Structures are given as C-alpha cells and as structure tokens.
Amino acid sequence: MSLLQETWQAYTDPLNDGWGRTVEHIRLSLTALALATVAGVVLGITAAKVGRGAAVVVVTIGNLGRMVPTLAIIGIIVVFFPLGFWPAAIGLFLLGIPPILVNAYTGIRDVDPGAREASRGMGLSRRQVLTRVELPLALPLIVAGVRTSAVEIVATATLAGLVGAGGLGVLVLAGLGNNQTEVILAGAIPVAILAVLAELVFAGAERLATPRGLRITRGLATQRGTA
Amino acid sequence: MAALDPAPPGRGPAEVAAGVLELSDLTKRFSAHGRAAVDGISLTVPAGEVCVLIGPSGCGKTTAMRMINRLIEPTSGDIRLDGRSVRDFSPHQLRRRIGYVIQQVGLMPHLTVAANVATVPRLLGWDRERTRARTRELLDLIGLDPDEYGPRYPAELSGGQQQRVGLARALAGDPPLMLMDEPFSAVDPITRERLQNDFLRLHRAVPKTVVFVSHDIDEAVKMGDRVAVMREGRIVQYAPPAELLARPADDFVADFVGADRALKSLSLTRLEDLDLLPAPLVRAGDEVAAVRARLESGELEPLGGTVLVVDPGGRPAAWIPVARLEGQVRVPADAGQADPVLDRITTLRDALSAILESGAAYGTVVDGEGRVTGLVGLDEIGRAIRRPAEVA
C-alpha cells in the first residue's frame, strides 16, 4: 500500500475524523479572518483619517505582528484563558490584523487627493467621500491584505491543535507523537490544500474588487512600463 | 456680456440664472497672530461675468476662492450669492449649487465619464431620466460624443478630455456660480489654448458667474471680464483687462502685467471683432466649369493663384492652385492643407502666434460649427492694432 493510500485511510479513519477536523480548521480560520478583517479595516480607516501620528502606530503594529510568533500569543492567551476554541481564534485574529490594517491604511491614504478635493467641493459629505470614493478605490488593496491574512491564518491554525481548539493540527500532533507519517500527512496535506485554496479564492476576489476604471489605469501603466 | 436673465427654456441647458457674487471685507487668518492670508477684500462679480483672481503664489487668491464654497471658513466678513449669505446654507447644500473645477481635475477613476458627470445631479436627487438627459447634453456641449465617451473611464481619456469632463461635471447641477482653480495649467500650451477657447464658447452658451484663479496674466486678460490682481492678501486693482493693461494702478501691477503690455493687449480682441478677408471658397465636388465661370465674372478672386476648398459642411479642406483644376471635371475633395484653422473666438495674440508658427500667409477663420467665415493675415491684425491709435 502506497503512502498516499495510507494517508487517505488515516484521513478517513473515524478515530482521526479528517473531515471533522477539516471543518473545525475552516471554521476557526474563517472566524479569526472575519474578526481580523473588521478590526483591520476599521482601525486602518481610523488611522488614515486621524493623520500623521497614526502612521507610526500602524507601522509599529504591522511590524510587531510580524515579529511576535503566533505560538507565543496563543501561549500567553492560554495562561489567562481556559483551553479551547476562543484562545486559538483570538491568537489567529491578532495574527491576521496587521496585513489588513496596513493595507486599509495605505489604500485610503493613497486615494488621489484631487478626487477627494473635487468630491468635497461638489458637496459630498465626509461619509459620502468615504463610502463612494475612498473605500471603492482602497478596496483592491484591502482585499489583498485579507488574502495575505487568510493564508497566514489557515497555515497557522494548525497550532490550534496544541490548545485544544481542534483543527487539522490535531492530526499532525497525533502523528508526530505516535511516529505515524501517514497521520502527519493526513493533517499536513489538507492544510496545504486549504492554504492554496484561500490564496486562489482571495486572488479572484481581488480581481472582482478592482473597479474596471482602475484595471485600465494599471493596464496603461504596464504598457508604458514595457514600452 | 452680463446675463441677468436666464436663457429661455428649451434653448441651451441654462435654466438657472447666473448669480451676483459679493465678497465684503473678507478676511482669513490661519493663526491668531499671523499675517492674514486674505486681508479684508471686497469685490462684486456681476451675474454672468468671469472674474479672474490673479497674483503671485501665496497672495491669497486660492484661499479667497475656497472661502466662497466654504472649503475654508472665513475669520470675518461675508460672502453673498444673489443677496443670500453663504452661511445661510449648510456647506454640502451650498457646494452642490456651486460648480467646482480644479487643476488636478479629480475625476473618480472607478466611475465612467457619464457617472462622473452625473455626480451632482445624483446628490441633488434628480430622477434617473433627467440625470441621463442632462449628462448627454453636457457631453455634447463639451464636444464629446455621449455614446462613445459616456461609458469610458477617465484613464482612457487624454488630459484635455479629462479637464473637459471636469468642466461638464461642474456644470451638471446647473449652478449659478462656478469656481475654477487654475483649471488649465496642468496641460500643454496647445491643449490649454483649446480648452480656454472651448470654455469661452461654453460660457457664451451657458453664462454662469465664474471666479477663476490663475497665475498667468495672459490667461487672465484672455478669460476675464474683470481681473482682480492680489498681493499679500489684498486686492491691488480690480478692473476690466483693457484698463489693467492701459492704466496699471501701481508699480506692482505694472510689473506683474509685464513690459510687453502692448503685445498683451492683442489678447483683448478676438478674430470675430475683425473685418476678415473674404475667402475664395470652392466646394469639393463642384463642377470645375462653374468655378471657371465664377473666376471669369470676378466673383471668385483667387489669393496668390489658389482657392480654398471646403467640404460639403463648409469646413476647410485644402488650398489648391487654380491651375490644378485644369483638366478636372469636379473640384477634388482633398489635397494639401488649410492650416492654421482658427476659431473666431481666438484672440489676436493666439492667432498671430499660430500664423507665424505655421508660416502660412493666412489663417482660416471658422465659426463654432467649423464653417469657414473668412481669412486673417498679418494685415488684418495690423489694422486692428492701429485702429485704436487712430481713434485716440
């Protein structure tokens, strides 16, 4: 029996419950991603509106997020909270914020000042400038941030197995503990597939989120670049 | 040129009358103890006139303009539009009634040209049909085919076309007042001249009161019914361009206007004010026999042995020598060129420059529809310059 077949057996074995773990993994990732998106977008917009001082904060948070390992965050949370779904979700949520926050901030800041000035001069309220001009123009970049976060969260959610939050990490840990390569793979391969799927889905979303008028701009820019 | 009455309904898009704009003792201090950016200026712009605010950078011209639509709140003083203080309106309500054109244009890159033009009508809550009709009307007015350009995106337009759309967008809500902040200074000189002429033509069709900020004295003389020269937050002189050139109020204005005042006064006269030379016109497709008959009767007098061929719409096609008609049955449709072609709204300065640049003896003058109305050469321009001198 090939290793692949053994892996498939381990995955479908009711004791390992590969499908159930996959569903847990996805649920945990989506929860963390949804919360991180809301927090990242709200904080990013706020920072962009508050002004220059906020840039320092955004950059610091962005760098901190990259420096502190999620495992450490989860460890710290576990010290203060009981084991389970939420400590893991909160750890992943914190991991997911920085890319979205930084992109939302940059996206709003990079909106053509002329378009903003003209909008205000034509009588759009601040809220209308945000919802009709700034957000549509920043959306592609925000979705790109969500895409980065999604892949990071899906991959890192494997650690959730350590703190009793379930997910495919449980299989990886069990396989490592019992020295069963096929069980490790039954956890690791679906994680890899999920990460690639997340990448593909959000890459598609990014295309959809890019208004036609902006795609043209980029097309022209590329043409000029190659000319 | 003042148009206190609105254009009659059904003729042109102007339904709202141009408004009288009054600034009184308007002051803006950005810090409590600093120098005032705008220092107690008062001026009145009659309805339908173009008032150019001009001065060196930092003179307060843009600040003064931005106070009119309350993008900046004045420290003291008042602004009235048709007798009502701008403070009687909320800033948003006010701005929807004031057209706004800026140097960077600021079209929404994610919206089509039509959607950009429809911005203010939508804010004003116009219904879909009225908004659509208005958008088409304005695109026509600025010379962009609504079916071709309406669905395009700003990135697909040239800089000149974008600024035209910016102009259409500012006119969409039919505002009684337009504010224009160096609207044509980001484009190349040839496009700028065309945009200026287009704007002047548009302004005749749709006479709005306009406040126009510029740093270019030539533009001010060309565009303004009145020019306010500003320095350090104050108005040094507020006068029609002819008076500004003839009698600068002080050395600062004289310096600013420049030493070549006489040359600049060429911008005060337009080709339509001149006695043009009649053009020896033949229509493409006319029978050569008929042309020959006109030549013999003396009705058609060739210039330097050539005649000007126009297309069936009366638009200039080419100069061709009479000799070339020998052996032909009909006047050929195209050969050679008729440059420079000048709109009759062109100033003498721009016309002179175009003629000198092209090396041609005559410029072909056309009306708003592009039909030939006559010819202009250095003699015609020279007579126009000498005429005031003879009167004086």
Key words describing this protein structure:
heterodimer; A: 227 residues; mainly alpha; MetI-like fold; 0% strand; B: 392 residues; alpha/beta; Rossmann fold; CBS-domain; four-stranded antiparallel β-sheet; 33% helix; disordered N terminus
List the helices and strands and how they pair.
The complex is a heterodimer of chains A (227) and B (392).
Chain A: H1 3-12, H2 18-50, H3 52-67, H4 70-80, H5 85-109, H6 113-121, H7 126-156, H8 169-178, H9 181-209, H10 212-226
Chain B: E1 21-28, E2 38-45, E3 50-54, H1 61-68, E4 76-81, E5 84-85, H2 91-96, E6 98-102, H3 113-117, H4 119-123, H5 128-141, H6 146-149, H7 159-171, E7 177-181, H8 189-205, E8 209-214, H9 217-223, E9 226-231, E10 234-239, H10 241-246, H11 251-257, H12 261-264, E11 281-283, H13 288-297, E12 306-310, E13 316-321, E14 341-343, H14 348-358, E15 362-366, E16 372-377, H15 378-391
Parallel strand pairs in B: 3-8, 3-9, 6-7, 7-8, 11-12, 14-15
Antiparallel strand pairs in B: 1-2, 1-4, 4-5, 9-10, 12-13, 15-16
Short description:
Chain A is mostly helical and 227 residues long. Chain A is built from ten helices and no strands. Chain A has helices spanning 3-12, 18-50, 52-67, 70-80, 85-109, 113-121, 126-156, 169-178, 181-209, 212-226.
